[in-house]
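Before the break, one more example. Copy the sequence into your notebook; we will annotate it together after we see the structure.
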Amino acid sequence: MTLYGNLATALSDFDQAMGLLGVQSSVTTFTESDFGRTFQPNGNAGTDHGWGNHGLVMGGAVNGGALYGTFPALALGGPDDSGGRGTWVPSTSEDQYMGALAKWFGLMQTDMDYVFPNLQTFKYQTPAFI
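Here is what the structure looks like once it is written out:
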């Protein structure tokens, strides 16, 4: 929990500094990782690379206080487990997540399919967190 506390303090301090500078609505901070960890440990008492993960988005232009996507059913071999070891299939793709950020950064809607060619394969739209 110490690392999460450190992260929370750092993000709060950064957010306050952006507010003092008057640029809070012009700055968006986000985390990005293209893999998670398996739920079930491996033979070395560690975990292997998984698939889904969580991302954080913060800034004055962010529609905060909401969760986007759905949490997986935490059942080994369940409907959201792609390999029987807790390799959760994400409900929101990296293309959707990064597409929302790219739109905020100014990418035109007409260029979305070129920049994110897999975006059209997902049944849900890009989250509107910004």
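The chain has three helices and two strands. The longest helix spans residues 2-21. Try to locate both features in your own notes.
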